[in-house]
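ok so i was messing around last nite and threw this chain in just to see what happens. nothing serious, just curious
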Amino acid sequence: MVSAEEKELLAERFVTGNLYKLKHLTAMVQPEELAELINESPHIDVIKVFQVLDAEKAVKTFEHLDFERQEALLLSFSVDQLSSTLNALSPDDRTALFEKLPTETLRKYLSLLTAEERKTANQLLQYPEDSIGRLMTPDFISVKEHWTVQQALDYIRKYGKDSETLNIIYVTDEKGFLQDDIKVRDFLLAPLDLPISGLMDRTYVSLDARDDQEVAIEAFKQTDRVALPVTDFNGLLLGIVTVDDMVDVIEEEDTEDIQKFGGTEALEEPYLKVSLREMIGKRAGWLIILFLGEMLTASAMGYFEDELSKAVVLALFIPLIISSGGNSGSQAATLIIRAMALGEVTIETWWQVLRREFLSGLALGGILGVIGFLRIATWSLFTDIYGPHWVMLGLVVGFTLIGVVLWGTITGSMFPILLKRIGVDPAVSSAPFIATLVDVTGLVIYFGFAYLLLKGSML
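result:
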């Protein structure tokens, strides 16, 4: 494994090295590390580097490059180089490349594939975007249950080099329907004359090719497997999905959720590669929505203009009230959205969540309410800024904090579950959105308590 210091030094050498030095340098690192080095170092001439790589290492390195680097390389290749590279790519990595290409370019590249590879590519591309079918590879090993262990091992030795992984061997019937999956270690430890049926327990987990990729994420978490079989709705084995593909999906899903939760649309490319125009477009929509929401806050304050004119001191606590409600709502939303992503909270458990958050909000609001009252009481010992009715003012602030924190907590916890119930991504209940919603209602709660408790004294 290359350290950070060695990586930085290597990057400098890749930039300044001639072809002879580059050939020596590329021999020092694995394809995955070489691809990472190229992705992170924009000054490296990727075309020059690929001139010194042997065919096998070039393909493995290419599969781990960012799309922009892959695109630049393909444009620099001759027709023969282009054809050999595209045909050598693993089906799942090739699908990931093809789904990002313009239609005309895709047609051109498909025409350069062999008949067999073109058929595979078209089959994978026909699955819906973000489906498990787009991730799978048809390169796997399957055996028959009437074979002996010896026959299976001979078959694996003969055809195993073409498989994506050999950790798991799949058992299918004569028509290709999945019957079981067996670890290779079980074959290695079993008597050679034992029929494969003697190793089978017929309990396995499979994925449907048309299911969303999030289904595969949950399945991998539960099974702790390096690969899972993918079937059609009838159980016909179509391919496998490996855990390395799922790592990329998990990163994309988490990044998308975090960006949505921050009040922006998800970016489809790395931050520094997104154009300024696209960046503004992704962020403007949410900002406009949130701005319009905050205008309701101004409207609410205008509605209580008389109260503010009679007791200007009430205005001093508006930022305190608004921020406390927004913060409690954001806290609750963050916890619930993450719990939903991990499968800890579901739509069916909404009542448990509501009960817990109600008690939490009540307790948290009570803590802040007591602190708010003590703050006013303490200041009143040294100054008359709050006037002779500071006790009632303190009660207004205290009760309001209990109310807004309770409301913020309930809203922040229930809104993501409501969105999930109607089929919307819970991540869109972003912290800014929850905060804006609670701001308006917080003012109503604040001035409502002020009117009830201060009427006849300060109001």
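not much to say yet. Residues 142-242 form a domain with the CBS-domain fold (CATH 3.10.580.10).
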